[in-house]
Design brief:
The complex is a heterodimer of chains A (143) and B (168). Chain A is mainly α. Chain A has a single domain, classed as Globins (Globin-like), CATH 1.10.490. Helix content of chain A is 69%, strand content 0%. In chain B, 63% of the residues lie in helices and 0% in strands. In chain B, helix 1 packs across helix 8 and helix 2 packs across helix 7. Chain B is flat. Classes of the chains: A mainly alpha (143), B mainly alpha (168). At the A-B interface, helix 2, helix 6 and helix 7 of A face helix 2, helix 7 and helix 8 of B.
Chain lengths: 143, 168
Amino acid sequence: MSLSAKDKATVKTFWAKISSSGEAIGTDALSRMLAVYPQTKTYFSHWKDLSPGSAPVVKHGATVMAGVGDAVAKIDDLTSGLLSLSELHAFTLRVDPSNFKILSHNILVVLAIMFPTDFTPEVHVAMDKFLAAVARALSEKYR
Amino acid sequence: MVKWTEEERRIVRGVWEKVDIDEIGAELWARALIVYPWIERYFGSFGDIFTTTAILNNPKLAALGKVVLSALDTAVKNIDNFKAMYASLSRQHYEKIKVDPDNFRLLAECITITIACKLRAELSPQVQATWQKFLSAVVEAMSSQYKLKKKKKKKSRPDQTWRKFSIE
């Protein structure tokens, strides 16, 4: 299920529309992930406050979406483009890769909420494929 | 069976009240069939289901959307014991329609995203969490009969084989 030329074009066009809301998207997606899938909280025991919209959630949401924006720019070769991020997740953070799917789902929910008319089924499938490709690239160095 | 607080029941009903079965029924299939096109395998007799426009104008899909959402309505109204009510539905999907149960999870995701487009900020993280709990219970109920039927045990009789070999 690799990204077609059409998928890449759809992702880039949609990202251009939404990137200015990147931080808000990241914060909301992360808030939802922690609230709806509480098992994900296990990775953030070092944060004082895990409630939706808290300071560490806002800060980290921005970090995550900056990573997604970087991935859009490197969409033609995600594996080499996200190499150091993959090493970070594999060796330092050691996040179970099943969680990438959970965060991706919540990003899609936020996109549906914030951009209901733009988030058509065609944009939905392109973004779902893109986030899955990003997850694969992040999992590259795991074993 | 899953346990529900009064607050959670209120939230699930609150979300469901805002769902227009006619509107959402068609949109739901548009997302499911476009985002997860392998679902098409179950719709061989439905005609054109290959573009968003075709899907939204397909009367068979609109009818099926209503059926699916009516079943969901049953679950909302019987939130404490719909698992038993769903048993025959689950068996039907397993034995007759032969649907891979992972598709229930995919359809549930599409339902959430379709509802998110409609409810927007009203689908707060807390509301989403309760709604997700409800849909997970529905998916579990739909998957509940995907198992081997228990074979009826033969009543064991005392062993009579010695009669063959006795000297009489």
